[in-house]
Amino acid sequence: MRRRLRPGCAVTAVLTAFLVVVVGYVVLAPLPPPPVLPVVATGPAVAAVTMPLVAPPGTVLSTRSVVVGGLRRTSVLVRPAGATPRALPLVVVLHGRGQSPGAAVTVSDLGALAASGRAVLLYPEGLGASWNAGHGCCGPAAVRRPDDTAFVQAAVADLREHVDIDDRRIALVGYSNGGKLAYALTCDPHGPFSALATYGAVPLGRCPGPAPPRPLSYLLAAGTADTVMPLGGREHGATPEPPVAVGLAWLRARDRCTAPPVAAGTTTTWHCATGTRVVFRLYPGHGHAWPTDGDGPPMSAVIGTFLSDPAIGIIRDDSPRPF
Question: Hey, how many other C-beta atoms are within 10 angstroms of the C-beta on 194?
Answer without folding.
Answer: 21
